[in-house]
């Protein structure tokens, strides 16, 4: 029997993680990425213990520990005064959940995954290879690329993000809707805010309709921040734009002084703006030999920091299902969907509600016992490496 032809669409965190998981299951996936180069894209990302266990299963435990910061605390503060409202101790994550809670630059995580995929197969990733069409055939899936190339796949994994072409081709649903929130992300050299003595943990300042989150990345040399505001409208063509930091300063004008000191230190060209788009959960992620994963399957709102984490969980579970099904790809997909859809739909639905809870009009809602976050929802104890498949 010849080896199955496996194609992964998209080389983001989800696409590379699933390529690695499938390689470890003995398959030889080919990853098609539309971007002409793979680079240092994005800002900070939190890798909660559930995702860290997945990355350790993929052989990246040591690399992650070497690159990432471990925040000892997460402090949620009153937006106007900076008064701490809720402190979550993250220092005992290893004992409580079986892995630390990490924070790092998305580019570092992406580079780590890419190096591991290429160590298995130097030719695994094709850049400048945007997929334009996907059509199920009798025996295989037909994949059309933007440059006219035509490929056949026995298994096609759609890991092509929020505006997934694979999802649009085979899964009837509505386009993503603007959630009403914009996000700004910036990176500030730690030395530029040294006098603030920000410390190693993460801080969330929460006010009516707005949030400001900051934490260190790159061994503490950079401070990553992300600010959210409810605006109601997104008029730009693109869903991600470079912007002036004055926009964030204006949106958060009544936030406490430390927030403004961090914003003022943003170097030129280091602030980007996103429109946050949402979709309702899908009832199925599998159509024949086509399967969705990560944001293509479940683009969630970022309130629980679980978008990349659940993409990593998906990848590990799909790889394990492929190994467990012993070459029967239909059985592998059946097991994957059964193992994953209930948990992820719960997280997806909670994320759609999370904005109102976190940035509603009453900061007192954030005091202990009143907040539902990724921790109190019990997300971290999940282990994609051992969950039954
Ligand atoms: C402000 C903000 C903060 C966040 N913070 C966190 C966090 O702290 N922790 C966390 O876990 N998650 C976080 N997330 C979510 C996280 O970034 C995403 O959920 C995650 O990156 C999804 O990964 P993915 O691989 O599924 O999709 P993507 O990262 O979108 O990757 C999709 C890839 O597919 C490629 N592609 C698209 N279409 C095609 C095509 N037709 N052909 C070929 N290639 C294609 C794209 O170029 C891209 O490389 C955050 C999101 C936002 C907006």
Tell me the overall shape: globular
What's the quaternary structure here? single chain
Please work out how many helical segments DSSP would assign: 10
Quick one: CATH class of the largest domain? Alpha Beta
Q: What ligands are attached or bound here?
A: flavin-adenine dinucleotide
Output the radius of gyration: 21 Å
Cα-to-Cα separation, first versus last residue:
25 Å
CATH architecture descriptor name of the largest domain: 3-Layer(bba) Sandwich
Per the CATH scheme, the topology name of the largest domain is: FAD/NAD(P)-binding domain
Q: Estimate the strand proportion.
A: 25-35%
Q: How many β-strand stretches?
A: 19
Helical content (DSSP H or I, runs of 4+)? 25-40%
Q: Order of strands in the sheet with the most strands? A: 5-4-13-14-15-12-17-16
| Secondary structure category | alpha/beta
**Strand and helix order:** EHEEHHEEHEHEEEEEHEEEEEHHEEEHH
Mean pLDDT: 91
Largest sheet: 8 strands, mixed
Low-confidence stretches: none
| Count of all domains | 2
CATH homologous superfamily of the largest domain, by name? Answer: FAD/NAD(P)-binding domain
Any overview of this molecule?
The chain is of the alpha/beta class and 389 residues long. The protein is built from 10 helices and 19 strands. The strands form 4 sheets. Strands 5-4-13-14-15-12-17-16 form an 8-stranded mixed sheet, covered by helices on one side. Strands 7-2-1-11-19-18 form a 6-stranded mixed sheet. The longest helix is centred in the last third of the chain and has 30 residues, at 329-358. The radius of gyration is 21 Å and the shape is globular. The protein starts with 5 loop residues before the first strand and ends in a 31-residue tail after the last helix. The model has no long low-confidence stretch (mean pLDDT 91). The structure holds flavin-adenine dinucleotide. Flavin-adenine dinucleotide (FAD) binds next to helix 1, strand 3, strand 12, strand 17 and helix 9.
């Amino acid at each position: 029997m010849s080896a199955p032809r496996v194609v992964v669409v998209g080389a983001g965190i989800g696409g590379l993680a699933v390529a690695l998981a499938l390689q470890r299951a003995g398959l030889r996936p080919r990853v098609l990425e539309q971007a002409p180069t793979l680079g240092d894209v994005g800002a900070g990302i939190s890798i909660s213990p559930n995702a860290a266990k997945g990355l350790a299963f993929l052989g990246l435990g040591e690399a992650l520990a070497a690159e990432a910061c471990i925040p000892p605390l997460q402090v949620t503060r009153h937006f106007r005064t900076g008064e701490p409202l809720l402190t979550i101790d993250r220092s005992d994550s290893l004992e409580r959940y079986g892995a630390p809670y990490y924070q790092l630059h998305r580019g570092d995580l992406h580079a780590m995954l890419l190096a591991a995929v290429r160590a298995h197969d130097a030719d695994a990733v094709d850049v400048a290879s945007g997929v334009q069409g996907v059509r199920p055939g009798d025996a295989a899936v037909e994949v059309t690329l933007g440059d006219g190339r035509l490929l056949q796949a026995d298994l096609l994994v759609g890991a092509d993000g929020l505006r997934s072409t694979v999802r649009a081709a085979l899964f009837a649903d509505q386009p993503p809707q603007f959630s009403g929130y914009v996000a700004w992300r910036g990176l500030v050299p730690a030395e530029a805010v040294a006098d603030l003595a920000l410390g190693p943990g993460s801080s969330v300042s929460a006010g009516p309709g707005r949030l400001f989150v900051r934490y260190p990345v790159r061994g503490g040399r950079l401070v990553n921040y992300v600010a959210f505001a409810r605006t109601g409208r997104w008029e730009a063509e693109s869903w991600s734009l470079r912007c002036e930091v004055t926009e964030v300063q204006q949106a958060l004008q009544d936030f406490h002084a430390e927030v403004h000191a961090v914003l003022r230190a943003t170097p030129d060209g280091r602030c980007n703006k996103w429109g946050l788009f949402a979709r309702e959960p899908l009832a199925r992620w599998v159509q024949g030999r086509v399967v969705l994963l990560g944001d293509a399957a479940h683009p969630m709102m970022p309130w629980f920091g679980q978008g990349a984490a659940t993409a990593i969980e998906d990848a590990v579970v799909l790889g394990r299902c492929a190994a467990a099904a012993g070459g029967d790809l239909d059985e592998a997909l059946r097991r994957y969907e059964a193992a994953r859809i209930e948990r992820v739909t719960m997280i997806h639905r909670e994320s759609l509600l999370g904005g109102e809870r976190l940035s509603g009009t009453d900061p007192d809602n954030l005091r202990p016992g009143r907040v539902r976050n990724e921790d109190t929802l019990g997300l971290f104890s999940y282990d994609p490496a051992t969950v039954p498949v």
